[in-house]
Amino acid sequence: MKYAPLLLLVTVAVLIALPWLVSGSMLNAAVQMLIAALFAMAFGLLCGQAGMLSFGHAAYFGVGAFAAVHAMNAFGGEGLLPTPLLPLVGGATGLVSGLLAGYFSTKRTGVYFAMITLALAELLHALAPHLKTVFGGEAGVSSFRMPAWGIGFGSLNDVYFLTLVWTLLCIGLLYLFSKTPLGRLALGLRENAHRLRFLGYNTHALGTLIFAISAMFAGIAGALQSMNIEAANYVVLESHISTAVVLNSFIGGVRVFLGPAIGGAVMTFFGHVTSDLTRVWLLYQGIIFVLVMMFLPRGLVGELVERIRNPSGEGLARTLSTLLARLVSLAIAAFGAVFLIEFLQRFLSPEYRAGVTDGNWPDIALFSYDWAPLSVLPWAFGLGLFGIGIALVTMVNRRVAARKEAQA
Amino acid sequence: MSDPILSLQHVHKSFGEAHIIRDANLDVIPGERHAVIGPNGAGKSTLFHLCSGQFAPSDGKILLNGKNIAGLKPAEVNRRGLARSFQITNIFPGVTVFENLRLAVMRKHNLQFVFWRSAARLRVVNEEVDDLLTKIRLTERAQTLASQLSYSEQRSLEIGMTLASDPQVILLDEPMAGMSHEETDYTAGLIREITEGRTLLIVEHDMSVVFSLAHRISVLVYGEIIATGTPEEIRGNARVKEAYLGEEAA
């Protein structure tokens, strides 16, 4: 991992140069990716490092978002809380609510812990529409970013840099935190809380504190979100926000430091691209999660780190050519699967059904061709490509296994 | 004979109708290696759980340095100078050997809720971890994941973690369970070394280990201590022979 600092430097440089490299719509996506990355990192501290799987992290993201909007309205971006420091309000609110919720939920572990976090988040979500003064009802609470420190904060570029600075700062702090005694104890909590207790530690207090710190960073992410869209609505408290952060973190790899951030960024990017192209992008997201959990249980980054640490011993060229062969085969299979799913989606959609008259099934346009739905061709095309891809991948895997056996 | 460092006085423990420990009396003298033996189900592990704070006794007193510790939480008992190992290996499997010991050592230096210092720069802590690694002969394995150690190495690590708080009294619960002859000899030597200047209370099934290691032995049968004495005294004790050793000799 001696290239890690260099890689980090290049990444930061690219992130700083990004507004001049990509379009406005892409930059907007980048802001959301950064927020998702920070939120996932906050979750990763709790779940990956301390081993506590929270199903209710939307609550702390949400309270951070609302606190920032209210602070924006109250201070007008001036005085003690100029616009760039507003995420601090989100962080403080997250910290306090995390201390409260953490105190109760960390009294239990495992499934019971997860259930309590879920219940607390759902409680807040159910309560929110009734507390109009705090959560603004259906309309939510909106505000405006005011200029401060000579920066306008009106343009997307300014928002991007505000989000970038806070995200990098927080990820840096999370990294430093993982190196402190408390950060090391988080690992102990994950690995064996019982033993920690017998070593003389107060595991409940440790759990509460780590929960609160995780909630604090989630609150900062929430604040960045509401500052970005200049509004907050109780939709941010919904359970799918809690679920998304769990899925993103696990896809990236919850046990490696930057895994959750990369999972969050990649999946947000994926959503941004695919939600314009297809209506069933959530299905794809779900399929990706299942496949990653089945075949790369360490997550994308986790698997990469593992491969670098324990190389296959076949040399770089062999490893890369195997990887390439796998990727090409998987791409063929994926194309076949996507074709089938999209074709089915169109075939089953109410709009198409409405167009069917007297047994006359109009052609379906997909990938710039018109396919007759009752002909065998489109189905055979999709299934065939999928089958070929899977067969190719199986072949590659068999060869690798045979080589390993020959070595042993 | 000096005052006992650990003293059980009329200790009783029952779970519902089951009386596991019945009026147990035991004095452990500072600096001695004291073994508790007894047939399976005699209550040896329960006795350890009572001393280390996992269970509170139903009745009676447990004195550590003359102060009653009965019913205190494990963490508090540990703070007062009594540390224990477990019958089942109880370590932090997913982190390195070094990290395991560092987690154990940090407590002694009151490093718990500290998030403004780097753990790598805690010089005293890291020196103590290095010392412990030398003592338990795992220096070479410092950066290995604990889960990848051999069984006897894991047991050594377990003992190292027990030592980390620099306790006056160490409780070892069947440290040789499941070990080969070589591993047992090795671990017995290790225990002899590390308990120098401390007090040891040990539960062990391997009689050759018990009789060569312990200064004094107590025999626990059906929740009662029926005899305490030197290995010779215990060998010659008629009640012990009848209740326990006799069965094995027969």
Describe this structure in words.
The complex is a heterodimer of chains A (408) and B (250). Chain A has 408 residues and is mainly α. In chain A, 72% of the residues lie in helices and 2% in strands. Chain A has a two-stranded antiparallel sheet with strand order 1-2. Chain A has a two-stranded antiparallel sheet with strand order 3-4. In chain A, helix 2 (24-49) crosses helix 10 (239-252), helix 4 packs across helix 5 and helix 8 (181-198) packs antiparallel against helix 9 (203-229). Chain A is globular, with a radius of gyration of 24 Å. The relative contact order of chain A is 0.12. The mean pLDDT of chain A is 87. The two termini of chain B are 36 Å apart. Chain B is globular, with a radius of gyration of 18 Å. Chain B has one domain: 3-Layer(aba) Sandwich (Rossmann fold). In chain B, helix 3 (97-108) crosses helix 4 (123-135), helix 3 runs parallel beside helix 5 (151-163) and helix 5 runs parallel beside helix 6 (181-194). By secondary structure, chain B is of the alpha/beta class.
- As a whole number of angstroms, the C-alpha radius of gyration of chain B is 18 Å
Average pLDDT, all residues of chain A: 87
Shape of chain A: globular
* Distance between the ends of chain B: 36 Å
Largest sheet of chain B: 6 strands, mixed
Question: Stretches of chain A where pLDDT falls below 50 for ≥5 residues?
Answer: none
Mean of the pLDDT scores of chain B? Answer: 85
According to DSSP, the number of beta strands of chain A is 4
Listing every helix as H and every strand as E from the N terminus to the C terminus, the arrangement of chain A reads: HHHHHHEHHHEHHHHHHEEH
Brief synopsis:
The complex is a heterodimer of chains A (408) and B (250). With 408 residues, chain A is mainly α.
